[in-house]
Design a protein that fits this description.
seven-stranded mixed beta sheet, alpha/beta, Aldehyde Dehydrogenase, Chain A, domain 1, homodimer, Aldehyde Dehydrogenase, Chain A, domain 2, about 40% helix
């Protein structure tokens, strides 16, 4: 693989530099500017990327499953073949440590391979066949066949906090490509070099598979213009986004205000409540506290599933939890954050909550350099939490708020007052099951994933994963951005009535040449 | 069954009259006002309906499959038990003939029974289990289980043109109830008596099944206030709507502008292109023309899938098609339309297109009374069609426009210029397959159902049906409002990680007590 970093975008097969504005990556550990310079795409370059994607769509969406699956696997192979050049550039651009990025690379490639398997299995096509009933009275039934087809070219916005797994060839791109959608990715400006390397790996996989070049493009943007133009381009039919609530809602609104509104999948913010039920807290306050601080500090707290809120009943066990957590947190070294902007926002968020009369600061981590995260732990009680909605605002980083509840009734009131979340964790022992049973239905309404005796950080890429949740955790509660179900976001159903067999797609032909699972007359056939 | 018509709504179990404004049904055949008077719901009554729905939600969504299925079947039984009282009232309120309404009643009950079977099969729950891998390196995998749960209370807006199948207990209500969502239905003001009768049938089924009363409410509205308040009520989590584009887009916008935007499923307008390919047209121009006029005139053209646009190559066969169609259409008696307002809108639409320099009027049906539909057939050519976007506007009723295309290339250009549609029909013979092959990918982008040698009217309620399509045919191209897949609109996925078996829902328990289809470790188990 070519591991040169040149300042390129990819408009289809063409490696080109933009000309609109300038952009440099910054090493957040040192504050140093990294070469090379990147330049934003022009409107013409974006237009060409969208035109190529549209041209490629009808051909790419009908690629044979083996061809498409091999293409996804080739992307993974090409990413691995970038070797240390990729890891080192990502470290420099994000401040994230090597083991984390190596793990994330494994996750990214595993994700591509999972979707290759999904494509081969063909279950996502949801094929249904209701055979003709020519003798039915009073009217014959026609032959009806349904499959899901790709929705169209997809725009993907790379996230800052997972420069590989939620970026250029991350989950949104992998699931969109698996669905049969060409992708126009917009690189996150915090890691343009990482994006260029991965973008080239995808582009080379497109060429290697003999696919039309428009299957993938990567554009840079030095501001917000190209991102907005991408979302509003009439050839784009869906958007995947992971990032801030403000950015996500702005793009979501643009997607809705188009002459043809399109599905927008934004994963935007979450404080991920952790419930400490009485028996578990009484038995294991110290251990849970240490696990909590470890989860909170992971990656400088820059996880969508970071435990930003703890709910428990007031009393000695909770005091013990708080004091153990405070002790562990106080010892936490400051960790470099992804970008100076994120570090600034974290500081401002912590300062704002610390000033609130509704909370007390019980611990701060070690201080560090200007772009690092000094962990923070705050405590309040349920009435004050319920009275001050701003206490629900996500502080992206290693900050969390403990809410003392008088009883389970009050804990439930806090849950009911929460906005939509990605995850909720419950720490429980056998004696807590009755309490859990009453809280679970309320949690189900609020979150996409409920986990027991653990923390939400660490999102398994699996068939049964949901990384999603009610608004505003995401803009579409019907979906997940992680796991094989993520492919559903980029599909729509089409029915074919009495279409001759030779005109049917392979998935629908009578002989089932793909050998995929189908529902025939309401039964598995 | 109680077949009295009293002017009631149903707020949960309570049969009550509204107090906000007055509403009478009108017999469109005679223009006579029908008793009794209906009054619109107050904001308080609506608030109570939504509160009851929210209260019922957690319990109703966890009902055992057999209980929920039997409830759906009981609704169907109760509707049948209304007997002729229902048919006669629906005839008086809509002007639709008895056989059509009896057929529609059968469809409505069949739909409820289909969803009962869907609930028993449990496939819609999309259960996935990735068992724990405690020894996996470098990290163990937790136990992960996914199911889809009901999205929340659903608002359903009854349509005017199917007083049974797309109204109070129509497809939206049936699929929402099947998903586990309480329903607050808003009656269409054109058929309040029919709505009251069906509403009572549903309410009695709720009581008979021992379900919480909030599972179903029916409200009346004399204007737009209650409909708007229903869509913006924070307890409502999704909306089903079938109606005009103007009404649909207004409600869609309200659903997006809520503090918590919600899924809005609007089925809004479609002109359903019919492609006549050369071989078929040459061989069967007359027969296709007669079938076309029959489909066009069905129910006074008041079908969402009415063939409002015909595309064919200019030439003698098309001339023959037009002249046969003109002859058949000229003989069509005027048919009573659903409401005076719909008849006025039809007249205005026909007058507007007839005045356009871009089209010529080739035939009109027989004239009739003030609220009837006088069929109309217009002809234009592709360049003029492409130049005048308003020619794509749906005229709700038995009006259609033939577009002469110079060649298949021009036909394809017309297809590409179309807005999203519910259906496209292709008339073809063996010699047309190559042409069809080039057009199919373009049609797939534009429509939800493609049918061959038939017309879109007649929408089978089946597993493989799609009654949906790209915007603006519907507000959500990922969905269908007819067929078993319609249930997916009212579900969202939730993942459970390491939740003890006794706290898992039956669908997820290790022993699979429901005996439903599940995906275990990526394989059918």
């Amino acid at each position: 693989m070519d591991t040169q970093i040149r300042g390129d975008m990819f408009i289809g097969a063409d490696a080109v530099a933009g000309t609109a504005g300038e952009l440099h990556a910054i090493d957040p550990a040192s504050g140093q500017t990294l070469d090379p310079v990147y330049r934003g795409a022009t409107r013409d370059q974006l237009d060409r990327a969208c035109a190529l994607a549209d041209d490629a769509f009808d051909s790419y969406r009908e690629t044979a499953p083996d061809v498409r699956a091999a293409f996804l696997e080739a992307i993974a192979d090409n990413i691995m073949a970038l070797g240390d050049a990729l890891i080192e550039r990502a470290m420099a651009e994000t401040g994230l440590p090597r083991p984390r990025l190596e793990g994330e690379r494994g996750r990214t490639c595993g994700q591509l391979k999972l979707f290759a398997q999904v494509v081969r299995d063909g279950r996502h096509l949801d094929v249904r066949i209701d055979p003709a009933l020519p003798d039915r009275q009073p009217q014959p039934r026609p032959d009806l066949r349904l499959r899901k087809i790709a929705i169209g070219p997809v725009a993907v916005f790379g996230a800052s906090n997972f420069p590989l797994a939620f970026s250029v060839a991350g989950g949104d791109t992998a699931s969109a490509l698996a669905a049969g959608c060409p992708v126009v990715a917009k690189a996150h400006p915090a890691h343009p070099g990482t994006s260029e390397l991965v973008g080239r790996a995808v582009r080379d996989a497109v060429a290697g598979a003999g696919l039309p070049e428009g299957v993938f493009s990567l554009v840079m943007d030095t501001g917000y213009e190209i991102g907005g133009a991408l979302v509003t381009d009439p050839r784009i039919k869906a958007v995947g986004f992971t990032g801030s609530r403000r950015g996500g809602l702005a793009l979501w609104r643009m997607a809705q205000d188009r002459p043809e509104p399109i599905p927008f999948y934004g994963e935007m913010s979450s404080i991920n409540p952790v419930l400490l039920l009485p028996e578990a807290l009484g038995a294991r306050a110290d251990a849970i506290a240490r696990g909590f601080v470890q989860s909170l500090a992971l990656g400088a707290g820059q996880f969508c599933t970071n435990p930003g809120l703890v709910l428990a009943l007031a009393g000695e066990p909770l005091d013990r939890f708080v004091s153990t957590a405070a002790e562990a947190l106080s010892a936490l070294p400051a960790a470099t954050m992804l970008t100076p902007g994120i570090a600034d926002a974290y500081r401002a968020g912590v300062a704002a909550i610390a000033k609130s009369d509704a909370v007390e600061t019980v611990a701060r981590g070690q201080e560090g350099h200007a772009h690092s995260c000094q962990a923070a732990l705050f405590v309040t009680d349920a009435p004050r939490f319920l009275a001050e909605h701003a206490l629900q605002d996500e502080i992206f980083g290693a900050a969390s708020l403990v809410v003392r509840c008088a009883d389970l009734h009050e804990m439930r009131a806090v849950i009911d007052a929460l906005e939509g979340q990605l995850t909720a964790a419950i720490h429980m022992d056998a004696g807590d099951h009755d309490a859990a049973r009453t809280l679970l239905p309320r949690l189900e309404r609020r979150v996409g994933r409920i986990l027991v005796n653990g923390f939400g950080t660490g999102v398994e890429v699996a068939h049964a994963m949901v990384h999603g949740g009610p608004f505003p955790a995401t803009s579409d509660p019907r979906t997940t951005s992680v796991g094989s179900l993520a492919i559903d976001r980029f599909l729509r159903p089409v029915a074919y009535q009495d279409l001759p067999d030779d005109l049917l797609a392979p998935a629908l032909k009578e002989a089932n040449p793909l050998g995929i699972e189908r529902l025939v007359d309401g039964k598995r056939g």
